[in-house]
Predict the structure.
Amino acid sequence: MKPDLFEAPDYYLLDDLLSEEHKLVRDAARSWVKRDVSPIIEEYAQKAEFPTQIISGLAEIGAFGPYIPPEYGGAGLDQISYGLIMQEIERGDSGVRSTASVQSSLVMYPIYAYGTEEQRKKYLPSLASGKMMGCFGLTEPDHGSNPSGMTTNFTDKGDHFLLNGAKLWISNAPFADIAVVWAKNEEGRIHGLIVERGMEGFSTPETHNKWSLRASATGELIFDNVKVPKENLLPGKSGLGAPLGCLDSARYGIAWGAIGAAMDCYDTALRYAGQRIQFDKPIGATQLQQKKLAEMITEITKAQLLAFRLGQLKNEGRATTAQISMAKRNNVDMAISIAREARQILGGMGITGEYPIMRHMMNLESVITYEGTHDIHLLITGWDITGISAFK
Ligand code: TGC
Ligand code: FAD
């Protein structure tokens, strides 16, 4: 891959709105991605492997539990810092950002928000340092957009629960030490359980042959009469609202992350357009290519403003699920459109691993699908503004 010459676009001088802490956190993540992710990520994506050697670096830049209080090992940062870290990591690769999103918002957050003090102390510091890795099991083979239909279930056996069922498409599953699993009890009520690797009957086969998120490990979670200790139930919240509360936090991070992928595609295409000569002039001197680049920076700027305002609302505890849906949907769609246009600016070179664009483009096909599809987020907005649910 070519050297990482990334320069972040900031057309509306958004840096002026960031605090010194935001900039420090953002710059540390940016430097780390340049040094430790960019040089190796193409190779790992090509061989479809998650680069486990970057786990300690992710922990050091605060990517595991950015907003979890320091007493539990988290970085104790605000929501804008969290967003900026996700932006910088996804500038490197969406699969690496996935690992950080899952660890922070889908594993640490439910243990912090719905767990007991014993569970927080037992798991959160190890998860924050990356010594322990987690995954989140909500989606099932027959229940993706509609998780309330899940069939994974547990029964009360007196001194333990017996867990049965299967989860599909689970990021980090092949190497995770623990899984936060959503399952129904005998009354059909959804609860979260912490399942640990090594429990008898629990396996995590890897999903192969992905064309997207190749540097992220994806797998299944299979529960065949797994005995789960009763103290592994998350007691603080039950019902579908419990996993959906985690998704609010992860979707918010994705709204920022997608900007990173878009910025990298735009920056690469802008530089290439200035250097590539055809018909005795740079292709960036033609109106057609300028139109593409001008529209890209316009869309990136709008997405940056949307994410920043959402971050302020999140800091104030006022961001709604529907507002988060709008930002996730808009910003991922923006990023995938920019990746497609940027790839065309590079002509044939755009399809090679010499440049990051094709990898971002393929990664974003997963990002537009997971954490609620593009359609589901539109339906959430429709439901919010009309008061009428069009899901069922
Ligand atoms: P619905 O009737 O709307 O709600 C059921 C209960 O949940 C409550 N609720 C919420 N509570 C907290 N936070 C939220 N955001 C909430 N949204 C809803 C709601 O009040 C209700 O409570 P109660 O007490 O009345 O029972 O549920 P529904 O079945 O109609 O579903 C609505 C819908 C379609 C929006 C929801 O199912 C949905 O979001 N589907 C998409 C599924 C999804 O996003 N899956 C993601 C899986 S995880 C993943 O993809 C990780 S990828 C990670 C990576 O690699 O980065
Ligand atoms: P479906 O729900 O079957 O949807 C298929 C199509 O139908 C979509 O276009 C959808 O928009 C549309 N559709 C569905 N319902 C409606 C409706 N009511 N109206 C109109 N259109 C509709 N899940 C986890 O739990 N944990 C993870 O860590 C995780 N990681 C993932 C990693 C990757 C790489 C991928 C690809 C997925 C991951 N997922 C994970 C699963 C992801 O959340 C689901 O794929 C997603 O929620 C969609 O579910 P589905 O694939 O079953 O599609």
About this structure: The chain is about 50% helix and 15% strand.
